[in-house]
Specification:
- By secondary structure, this protein is an alpha+beta fold.
- It has a single domain (41-196), classed as Leucyl/phenylalanyl-tRNA-protein transferase, C-terminal domain (Aminopeptidase, 3-Layer(aba) Sandwich).
- It contains 7 helices and 10 strands.
- The protein has a 7-stranded mixed β-sheet with strand order 5-6-7-8-9-4-10, sandwiched between helices. A 3-stranded antiparallel β-sheet has the order 1-3-2.
- Mean pLDDT is 91; it is low at 1-6.
């Protein structure tokens, strides 16, 4: 899975890595070093097979959150890096935070945020490149906040013409939404197709 460490990764190199099927991780939040990952089996959430439960659909219709795009990117990354009971350790270190902040400045990294009463209560972030979106992490401080953000992410991708939602790996949680395991060769073909299209705007440039 690992493809060697890379102590001096730049934002440009990071984008080229995504285009090659790689993404970076750290062993822990306290380890400043990164390593490249290229899974044998990749997680993908097909946009045409995305589905949600009746209960979640009802929650989305009730609009319990104000959904914002890119208004608190750094805060979302920091929240995803927090140690919580269900996730005592994280792979998001300071190097990753700095790199994705730079990608955000270049309009290639984005956050979908759930707000309630002026407070950030959930969200997700990831990287956009042409017609692909590479999901990185999500967090939730109240019930369903991150799930509702995922629904809005998919809706936005569909509306803007994206064709690939890469989840890196699959989990039981993501499989409930339709996420599938894709062999590396098949993923490479899906990625190539997504990168052949125009460089879509996930959000308007600041």
């Amino acid at each position: 899975m690992r493809r060697g460490s890379q102590p001096q990764i730049t934002a440009d190199l990071l984008l080229r890595a995504y285009a090659s099927g790689l993404f970076p991780m750290a062993d822990s939040a306290d380890d400043p070093d990164l390593f490249w990952v290229e899974p044998e089996i990749r997680g993908v959430l097909p946009l045409d097979a995305f589905h949600i439960s009746k209960r979640l659909a009802r929650t989305v219709r009730q609009e319990p959150f104000e959904i914002r795009i890119n208004t608190a990117f750094n805060e979302v990354v920091s929240a995803c890096a927090e140690s919580v009971a269900t996730r005592p350790s994280t792979w998001i270190n300071s190097t990753i935070s700095e790199l994705y902040t730079e990608l955000h400045r270049l309009n290639h990294a984005h956050s979908v945020e759930a707000w309630r009463d002026g407070e950030l209560v959930g969200g997700l972030y990831g990287v956009s490149l042409r017609r692909a979106f590479f999901g990185e992490s999500m967090f939730s401080r109240v019930t369903d906040a991150s799930k509702v953000c995922l629904v809005h992410l998919v809706d936005r991708m569909r509306a803007r013409g994206f064709v690939l939602l890469d989840t890196q790996f699959t989990t039981q949680h993501l499989k409930r939404f339709g996420a599938i395991d894709v062999p590396r060769d098949a993923y490479a073909n899906m990625l190539a197709e997504a990168l052949e299209g125009p460089d879509l705007a996930f959000s308007d440039a600041p």
